[in-house]
Structures are given as structure tokens and as C-alpha cells.
Write a structure and sequence with these properties.
Chains A, B: Its cofactor is Mg(2+). The structure is a homodimer. With about 550 residues, chain A is of the alpha/beta class. Helices cover about 30% and strands about 25% of the residues of chain A. Chain A contains 18 helices and 26 strands.
């Protein structure tokens, strides 16, 4: 028995790139990508990606080089996910809402050789390129991805500047549609580089390999029970953890990718009807926008036919209830850039359908259980390193183990060692509790926990109560220094249109729902709260504001 | 970039065993296994499998030991698929229709430490144990898997013999339901040993590892688009390539396993109705039995609701048409024990639905395209080693590459090297053509091709024409020596009840449908044709009969 093992046939590296080659045969004439009047078939997409890979190689790109993209969810962005790694390069999609200094930091850090850019982000890119350190590596070569559906008047780039650029379609023309794509030398070869976006100000470059991406892709399809040939609407930015691995997943199941430049509720509902969309992913923020769209806009072809996958640290019960009332069939999970997609999900139990709606929503807003490809997930007490009891109240850090976990952070040994520990766990920095039924629920990012007296307060628990108030649109709770207890909860709140509520009323509302020490001592009203492009609250901004206010005293302030 | 790679977190071995642990939480209260009045939940199945693993360890089973099972599709057979490898042992399921000398050969070859046996096969096993070579390794310890639903009168084992045996439930009682199951040291550790059954008389021991089984399991679920929580009827023997990996697949998606001791058309249709079965696998032979059941029996709750996956070298068009007329939604694929399940499948194209039924059936009886987890599939010319043209007529050998391919044959370096070649391909020995659309179609086992004059005749093509005749129940075509052309086709045919046809008529029927040289020169009628328990024709038996007849002369014989 022991003589048998890896051999020349079964050691062939796992990679999601072969899904596209297969799709060209198995789904050849089916629609692969749709964008306004642009309709590609899987046969065409395969050939276009081979052209892209071949052209990149002829531009001098070689194995392990970084190729970046500053693109919205247009067809070229989809093609990047195959064409770039098929050249042997590592794909780096950049969050398009970053500012020029940050983009410059990322480009300098990754050493990108080539960057594909949308006309809307050319001036951002030009600013970033000017900020690159002098005397460093050569600036990346810029390729313009033209878009006939982009409204030119928004552009700040001159016609001359535009004319000087190589375009994406010119590049594809150069490429060979019969190119023998570059297979990874091993399944551990880097394939993807994603910078973690902005809940802290120090971006880290997450590197995932072919094996990890292959596995998170099959994991996501099976966990969400994606059927054959779905129609997938691209409401989730592909620059966000590569759209949770679904670019590769759609090639595996022969789905149709419906592209969208931007998420606007009216456009989303129109696209759902026009293309018979069956599946979409949305952050809780986007789900909130869709669920709160005006009544005339908020129409689905049939209730329960559109399946929505949402994830993130916080899915407010109110948002979920609204979305389900509209008719979306919502699934909920949890993942990180470091895992390439969702690795925990709230597997739904039939018996829960009998419960009243608020109870159902409360159960579904829990993050859930590990997805099947992950080996293990646990919640560890940060002091003892032991599993927390399954009591639904003891907080600890979520740790993960399994093949979807990243290789590490690019050129950042310290950050890598802090996350990937010798104890065999990836430490997420997310604080959660384990319920008696084995479902975990996130309580906070570890740095967002408020320590009041000796007690830890989950900022999310307080926020959750605030979201339940009918006037509240958005809520974020952070620590503010407190003379008595060290820290006390401080709430930043934005209200729904034409709604009013006083700080007193919100504090009273909170005290009815939690122990006094957990209720906010301060409530600050804002028209809008600061968020990243993927809808995560920029709590460090609010924490700075709360610090600047100075310490609270004995009583509550408003 | 190059400093990043495998690390203590992402190098955790792939194994399907964790699916059960997850199922105990995610699907804890859902039905896992149903058999008459026995109903287990996933929580219970997990604990029973841990008891089994723990008891095996306490019996002295250690990592890499072989544990065998001689069982029909009863609940214990399902539990073997987790409990045995959870002890670190390698599971060897034995085809229950083998004879005692063959079972003895397998037990001696595998060195099984323990064998679980059904009462129906105790006397077979006793005979086999008596045939074990003297002075070899100790005979395996026999554990009796009692079955209250087995009719005792069929048994030939005495009450005393039965009373002396340890029973499965006694063993589970000994086990610890909180046992920390033995994880594989590496994902390449052997997990499964299956002996190839009987189309030749020399069984080979296929060894698959944890990684391979993990991957074929996800492959099968995605390729067949298995939804969450299906109800799966066990019509395919689990001893046949471990039921095409679906024991592990059901734990991954939280399905219900409906067990069946034997396949009887009336029982199958009754089980479908009683349990709301959504999915089942069937060999073409079993599909034939189901499709030809008496009208009163042949009833489905709703057309298209029961999905059937069938595979094997030959799916007659007539069988497929009948099965679809009954209302089964049939998918078709191809795999081998060496790949652990289906690795090629006939992905259906919507545009084909518009074609007339015979054309649809003709397209669906092709084996198809590679399933997504397999890296590559090709058809090679046996002389040049190059891909055959995509012309639908040039025959070559099917070769495969990818992670689902076995480690090798146990203690058989020669056979392993013949199959797993240094060219990086697994050579299947199956002969096929590649159609212009990239779908492959099997024409024969390489040893079944008939060489007439200079031409190769696919025995399956001739059989396919014979199956189209309304009187034909079963047909097998083999080479018979021929004075003029070396070999000529000789058909063995069984007829449907109350049908008649002459040899002359069948030869004329064939000649209308193929070139004269391909039509059978001899037709032999039999009440039944010799088959293996999984429905494969024992062609070597027929070939011997045809040889014994001596050579055909110039004209056809009947």
C-alpha cells in the first residue's frame, strides 16, 4: 500500500483555469457574458481569454509577474480572471474607490507590470502613477479598456491622452486565439493578489494560489447549491475578493454573467427582469439599497426565484427582513479576502420555516457553520487558546483551517506570521460566539470591541438594536473614552428620509433592549456614515472622532 | 511572491470524512439514512460512525490496514464509508455476486484484517475463508451485520454459527461516540480499495486516496448539479466504485440515503413514491429493468422529478428512450473504478431539446465531455500516440489526466505501469471516437474490437443496431474466427417476452443499418446473456463460445 502515491497522472495541479476550456466545449454556444448589447458565448470568451494571455506573454509578462486591473464589472474584468493567470501572471484587481495615494502604494508594493484601466479611472490612475516613487521599478504599462456604455462627459482625461493609449481590443487583436495557455507549475503557484480594503488604513496583499482558488470555487458552488446554467448578476464588485470566486464558478457551471458598471437599484431590478437573473451576491449595504428602493422600482418577476448571497460581519435583521419581503431568497455567510470567498455559511434548516419572521431573521443573520471544503472552524478564547463554550455568549476569535486559506501576505512576513500561526490556525481577528447548535455568530472585529469597566461590549450588538429602530438608516458604535469605565459606547447614526428621532429616544430604546452599561452614552447624528466601497464601516474614522470629543462623564451625553 | 506557499493552515489534507462531521451540525436533525423502519439522523450517523472507527481501533486496526465489507446497500454499508477510514483503515467493499474462490483471492490479496458480512453472504464467506492459502496471514475477523429485513429462510448458515459471531451492533456498543477520528497524515494516504469486477477474469485492486475521493465527490455533485438535501435511492451497489462517490456526496449536501437490499422494479418504484426520491444512479441494465417493468408498476409521482444518472460503456438508445418515456430525467456519463466515479459526462445543451426524440437519444447516449475537476481527457491513436481527428469515426483509446485518478493497483506494479504511463496519461483501454463538437463516444473496450479484413468493427455499434429491433432484449457481439476476413461479428441475442424474430431477419435488419462487413455473420439466441453483477456483459465467456464454434466461411450462418 505504501508504495502507491502521487503519480504523473493524478498529480496534475488543481487550477480553476481549465473550467473555461471545458466551458468552450460543454457550453460552447451558451451565453457567457452579457453587457448591454454585448453578448459573448463561452466559445468566444475562451478564445478572447487565450488572446489576452497570449498578448500578455508577447508583451513580456512572465510567470509570477503581477498584472493589475482598475475596472468596474465590465466584460473585460470578467476576462481578466482567466486571461491574466492563463499567461502565468498573477491577477491583482484594485478597488476602484481608492484614492490616488493608496493606488500608488499598491502599485509600488505589487510591482505591477501592466494595468488595465477603465476610462472612468484614468485620471485616478494618472495621479497615482505620478505619485510612484522616483527611481523605483518602471511604472506599469497602461492599457485602456474602452467602454461604449460609459458616459464620456464624466471623463476628465483629454482626447489626446486617450488616443495615445493601447486599447484592450487592440491588445486582443495581437493575441493568438489558439494559444497554449500557461498551466501552473504546481497548484501552490500564486494566482491572485488582493489588497485588503480599508477598515484599517494599512492594506495587505493577500496572495491565493491555484489550488486555493479551485477549492473555494467548488466550495461556493456546492454550499450555495448553484444549479447548472444560472444567470448571475454582477452586483458584487469583482475587485472584492474576486467576486467571491464566482467568475470561475460561472465557467464551471456554464452560467451567464450579466455585467453592470455600477449598482443602482433601478438598474439592478431592470436587469433582473430583462435577463431572468437567478443569482446575485450583495453586501448587506447593497441589499439594504435594493430592499429600500422605491415601491415602483422594487419589483421581482417572481418571489423566491432570485437567490441572493450576502456576507460580511454584519447583516442587520431589519435589512434581511425587508429583502425577504421584496421576494429575494437570501443566503448568508462569512468569508475574507484571505479565504478567497465564503467559508462559513448559515445552512438553513427546514424546521426553522415554521418560526415567526423575526425569529427566522435572527437565526439567519448568524454566520453559521463551516462550508464543506474547509477543514475546521473554531472560536478560541484569546487568553487560554481553548474553544469557547457553546453558550451563545462567551466571545472569542474565529480561527480557520483548510485549503482555501491564502498563501500569505505579499512581502509582509510579520503580518503573515500574525495571521497564519504555528498552532495551525488562521486567526481572523473577528470576534464571535458559538451557539449551542454549533452555529457561530460574529460579535465584532477584535479591535472594535468596547471595554467598559471589566466588561466587553460587542459594538455590533448595540448597532443591531439601533438598526431595529424604524427611523435609523445606518448605525455605527465605537468606543469613546469614559472617565468612570475607561471606555463607553458612542453611536453614530444616520436617519431614514423624513424620519426623526432624538438621541434621548435612541438611548432609551437601547436601554430597553440591553443592560445599561452596553447602551450608548453618546449619540451623534450624521447625514451619512463613512464607508469603504464594499460597504464596510470605516470605524477608525469614527473612533478618531469619538476620541477627539474627549471622555464622557458619569451621565449620558447627546 | 516566491516565498509564499504551503503553510500549516492551508496544507491541511483534503478528505471527504469531514463532510460527516459538518453534516452532524449543519443537518443534524435531518434524515441521513432510511431503511424500512430504520431512520437515522445525521447527528446519529456521525456518532455511529465514530463508534465504528473507535471500535475498529480497539480491535487493533491501524493506519493502512484493510477492512472489507460483503454487504448489500444496507445502512451499515453506508456507515462503512465513513467509519472505516475514520479509524485510519482502508475500506474494501467486495462485489457480493462473486464466487467463493474469487472472494478468497481478494481477501488473500488485500490481507483484510476484518470483514463485515451480511447474513445472505455468510456461507459464501465461509467457503472463501476455507479456500484461503494455509500458512498465509491470519484469516480476517468476521463481523455479522444483522438485518431484521432479511428473510431468514434464504440463509444456509446454522443458528450456532450465527450465534458465535460478533455482531455489528455489539461492535458499535463497544465504540466511543466522541472518538477523535483518525485524520489522514497526508491527502495522498490510501482510503479505498476496490477490485475491478469481472469483464476479465483477473481482478486488480484499485487504490484511491483521500484527495482523489474528495475531488471525485465534489466533481460528481457539481456535474450532476445535485441540489441541497436530495433524497437518494441506493439502486447502485455501494460496492461498485463506492456508489460513484455518492456516499460522501450525500453527507456534503445533507441528502437522505434510502437503502435497498436488492434492485427489484416494484420495490424501486414503491420506494420512489414512499420517500419522494429525487435522485438515483442506475447502470444501463438496471435502467432497462426499470423502463421495462409492467405498466402497473412503472409509475412515477411526477415526470421529470426523478433524476437518474447512468454510466457505463454502453447505453442503448432504446433503453434511454424508454426510461425517458416513463418520466425519468436521465443524465449520462462515463467513469471507472480507477477514477472513483464519472469523469466524462454528456452535458446537455438546451438547443437539443428541439430535436426529435431519436436524435436526442442518439446525442445523449454519447459519453460526452470531461467533468470539471478532471484536468484533461483525450482520445489517442494507439500507433502514433496523437489525438485522433474530431470526425466521429476515427477510433482511439480514451486517456485521462487529473486528480481523481487512482494511486495505482495494489501490489501490481506491472498493471499500474501499463495504466499510468510516463506520458502523463491514464490509459483506460476503452476505444472511442471524438465528434466534431468535442463530445466523445465509446465504441468498444479495446479487446472487444473485431478486426475484419483490414477494418476495425466496433462491437458496440453492431449491438446498438440490434437493440433497436423491437424483439431484442439484450445483445452482445464478439469476434468469431472467419476463414476469409480473419474475424467476423457473431451476435448473441436474448429476446423480449413473447417476441420472436429469426436470425435471418436480424442479419437483414443489421445490413439495412450498416455496411455488410459490419453486420453479424452469426446470430445465436439465448434466454439470458452472461453478465457481471453490475450489468457488464461477460464478453470473454461469449468469445470462448464463438471460438468453440470454429471459423465462419463465406456466407452468413445462423
Amino acid at each position: 500500500m505504501e508504495k502507491l502515491g502521487m503519480n504523473p497522472v493524478n498529480s496534475c495541479p488543481l487550477t480553476p483555469l481549465g473550467f473555461l476550456e471545458r466551458a468552450a466545449t460543454a457550453f460552447g454556444g451558451c451565453r457567457s457574458v452579457v453587457y448591454h448589447d454585448v453578448v459573448w458565448t463561452w466559445r468566444q470568451t475562451f478564445r478572447r481569454c487565450l488572446r489576452l494571455a497570449s498578448a500578455l506573454v508577447s508583451l513580456g509578462v512572465s510567470r509570477g509577474d503581477v498584472v493589475s486591473a482598475l475596472l468596474p464589472n465590465v466584460p473585460a474584468m470578467y476576462e481578466m480572471h482567466f486571461g491574466v493567470p492563463m499567461s502565468g501572471a498573477v491577477l491583482n484587481t484594485i478597488n476602484t474607490s481608492l484614492d490616488a495615494p493608496t493606488v500608488a502604494v499598491l502599485l509600488a508594493h505589487s510591482g505591477a507590470k501592466i494595468i488595465f484601466a477603465d476610462p472612468a479611472f484614468l485620471s485616478l490612475l494618472a495621479d497615482a502613477l505620478r505619485l510612484l516613487p522616483a527611481g523605483g521599478q518602471p511604472a506599469p504599462c497602461v492599457i485602456l479598456v474602452e467602454d461604449p456604455y460609459y458616459k464620456e462627459e464624466e471623463s476628465t482625461t483629454s482626447d489626446e491622452e486617450l488616443a495615445a493609449l493601447t486599447t484592450y481590443e487592440m491588445l486582443l487583436e495581437m493575441g493568438d486565439p489558439e494559444f497554449a495557455w500557461v498551466r501552473p507549475a504546481t497548484e501552490w503557484d500564486p494566482m491572485i493578489l488582493n489588497y485588503t480594503s480599508g477598515t484599517t488604513s494599512a492594506p495587505k496583499g493577500v496572495v491565493n494560489c491555484h489550488r486555493g482558488i479551485f477549492l473555494i470555487t467548488v466550495n461556493s458552488l456546492i454550499d450555495w447549491a448553484v444549479p447548472a446554467r444560472p444567470t448571475f448578476l454582477w452586483t458584487l464588485p469583482m475587485f472584492h475578493a474576486n467576486g467571491s470566486s464566482f467568475p470561475w464558478g460561472m465557467a464551471m457551471v456554464g452560467g451567464t454573467n450579466v455585467c453592470l458598471r455600477r449598482v443602482d437599484a433601478a438598474e439592478v431590478y431592470a436587469a433582473i427582469s430583462r435577463h431572468d437573473v437567478t443569482h446575485l451576491c450583495a453586501s448587506p449595504m447593497v441589499l439594504n439599497v435594493l430592499a429600500n428602493a422605491p415601491e415602483g422600482v422594487r419589483r421581482l418577476p417572481a418571489a423566491g426565484k432570485v437567490r441572493v448571497l450576502t456576507g460580511g460581519a454584519q447583516l442587520p435583521v431589519a435589512v434581511l427582513e425587508l429583502a425577504e419581503a421584496v421576494g429575494f431568497q437570501v443566503s448568508h455567510g462569512y468569508g475574507l479576502s484571505e479565504t478567497g470567498g465564503l467559508v462559513v455559511s448559515c445552512v438553513w434548516k427546514e424546521e426553522w420555516n415554521k418560526l415567526p419572521a423575526p425569529e427566522r431573521a435572527r437565526l439567519k443573520t448568524r454566520q453559521g457553520v463551516r462550508t464543506p471544503v474547509m477543514a475546521e472552524v473554531d472560536i478560541l478564547d484569546s487568553e487560554t487558546g481553548r474553544s469557547v463554550p457553546r453558550d451563545g455568549s462567551t466571545m472569542g476569535e474565529i480561527v480557520l483551517r483548510g485549503s482555501c486559506v491564502m498563501l500569505g501576505y505579499l512581502n509582509d512576513v510579520k503580518a503573515t506570521e500574525a495571521a497564519i500561526r504555528d498552532d495551525g490556525w488562521f486567526h481572523t481577528g473577528d470576534i464571535a460566539v458559538m451557539h449551542p447548535d454549533g452555529y457561530l455568530e460574529i460579535r465584532d472585529r477584535s479591535k472594535d470591541v468596547i471595554v467598559s469597566g471589566g466588561d466587553s461590549i460587542s459594538s455590533m450588538e448595540v448597532e443591531s438594536a439601533l438598526y431595529g429602530h424604524p427611523a435609523v438608516n445606518d448605525a455605527a458604535v465605537v468606543a469613546r473614552p469614559d472617565e468612570v469605565s475607561g471606555e463607553a459606547p458612542c453611536a453614530f447614526v444616520s436617519l431614514k428620509e423624513a424620519s426623526t428621532v432624538t438621541a434621548d429616544e435612541l438611548i432609551a430604546w437601547s436601554r430597553e433592549r440591553m443592560p445599561d452599561f452596553m447602551a450608548p452614552k453618546t449619540v451623534v447624528f450624521r447625514t451619512e456614515l463613512p464607508k469603504t466601497s464594499t460597504g464596510k464601516m470605516k470605524k477608525y474614522v469614527l473612533r478618531n472622532l469619538a476620541n477627539d470629543m474627549g471622555p464622557t462623564r458619569g451621565s449620558t451625553e447627546m
